[in-house]
Amino acid sequence: MYNQLLRLPKAELHLHIEGTLTPERMMSLAERNGMPLRYTSVDDIYAAYEFTDLQSFLDVYFQGMQVLKTAQDFEDLAMDYFELAHSEGVVHIELHVDPQAHLARGIALETVIEGLNRARSRAQRELDLSSAMILAFLRDRPAEEAAELLESTIPYLEHFAAVGLDSAELGHPPSKFRQVFARAAELGLARVAHAGEEGPPAYIYEALDILDVERIDHGVRCMEDPALVERLRDERRVLTVCPLSNVRLKVVERMEDHPLPAMLDAGLMLTLNSDDPSYFGGGLLDNYLACHQAFGWDMVVFKKLARNALNAAFMSEARREALLARMDALSV
Ligand code: ADE
Ligand code: ZN
């Protein structure tokens, strides 16, 4: 099964690039940038990765990314992950980027974009790994700040496929960002939003009805509302589910308790994703393997999920067709 899952051309639609920062890279960047680190070793860093909920993770995540200063740092960060993903049979990655977290530390938007774009070009050229960027708004910051970010991103708009909504969900419903998402649509950007990770089904309705999103990130709490499940199924809405993340952030107790099998039975359009692989104990292949282990899924299921991801990806039709053909050519 490992080899079959490895060979499957996998696309990852839900990944936070800042969540790919490995402890090793964190230590080397801290040293390169002459910054004191609260951790003294890689083991010390891993020991801090015991989360009780989303917020307890976000505290560590925003702390960790402070070592990112220069365009070279962002290039190294992304290249580390692109190489790992490539070794796991990932062929396309859509990366959420959190510019507000960097702007607040005095890092220019241009620095972030330049570094990430350099890595994206190298990945395309050296690894045949395509990618797209998603401009994420931090939902626990004011909507006005998101609106300002969007306006200041206009000179770089060609580099972004979509806007997204992430960070602390509870108490920050999608409706808070009605105007900024309308503006993003006007600017020709697609929309996605985290909804129903920790937040209630009502947030998923809002993401669909008010933000007009194309995909729902996470969305697992839709299972509490049968009418919503029916709607998501009928409208063939794509959910970017992150199983290892959900276990690590205690959205579910154990992988065996995850609603993924029930979501699949309900006919939902699911994709598997790693969210923040360095913090949650595994990349995309590990998420596929964890599902195989917990649910006993076979290649028929995994091919369907991988095909969903290719169909829902922000990529050229030529690339999509080529990757789908590569998948169809697999013997299983
Ligand atoms: N930012 C990074 N990872 C996140 C997640 N799982 N949920 C919300 N915001 C995030
Ligand atoms: Zn996420």
What does this 3D model show about the protein?
There is one protein chain. This protein has 332 residues and is of the alpha/beta class. It has a single domain, classed as Metal-dependent hydrolases (TIM Barrel), CATH 3.20.20.140. 50% of the residues lie in helices and 15% in strands. Helix 16 (299-312) packs antiparallel against helix 17 (317-328). The longest helix has 19 residues, at 109-127. The structure holds adenine (ADE) and zinc ion.
Architecture blueprint of SSEs:
Elements: H1 2-7, E1 10-16, H2 23-32, H3 42-47, H4 54-64, H5 71-87, E2 90-97, H6 99-103, H7 109-127, E3 130-138, H8 143-152, E4 160-166, H9 178-186, E5 190-195, H10 201-209, E6 215-218, H11 226-234, E7 238-241, H12 243-248, H13 260-265, E8 269-272, H14 277-280, H15 284-295, H16 299-312, H17 317-328
Parallel strand pairs: 1-2, 2-3, 3-4, 4-5, 5-6, 6-7, 7-8
Helix pairs in contact: 5-7, 8-9, 16-17
Residues 16, 19, 54, 61, 166-167, 194, 197, 245, 275-276 line the site of adenine.
